[in-house]
Model the fold of this input.
Amino acid sequence: MTFYTVVKIVHVLAIISWMAAILYLPRLFVYHADQKAESETSKVFCVMERRLLNGIMTPAMILAWITGVTLAVTGGWYHDIWFAVKFLCVLVLSGMHGFLSRERKLLEQGQRPHTSRFYRIINEVPTLLMIVIVIMVIAKPF
Done:
């Protein structure tokens, strides 16, 4: 196996892990937002959310970024329009990651910054970004 192939495999695995976590975390918030801050259920959600974010989501994002930049430089794609669109979507996805991280901290502090309905709606953002990213990578329409 070549270096490029190994990096690509790690990149795909990191993306799968990151996407699974970034799709699941807001779903946990949907149920967490409806709990009283001091309840045992709320405390369980805090542990689940913290472990998901710190144990899977953030390491996977970092690994996806490192391997993604490596692939882009190795492949010379950073000049292509499809890559610019993909990169923009990944930046927005990373911003979403930061937003969800902040929301987790607020929920852990007993605050309820948003309703469960808000989290249901925001849960669709990573899905839409993922669709655009996959289209850009596979079809390279530009």
Notes: Residues 3-139 form one domain. The chain has a mean pLDDT of 96. Helices lie at 3-32, 40-75, 81-108, 116-122, 124-139.
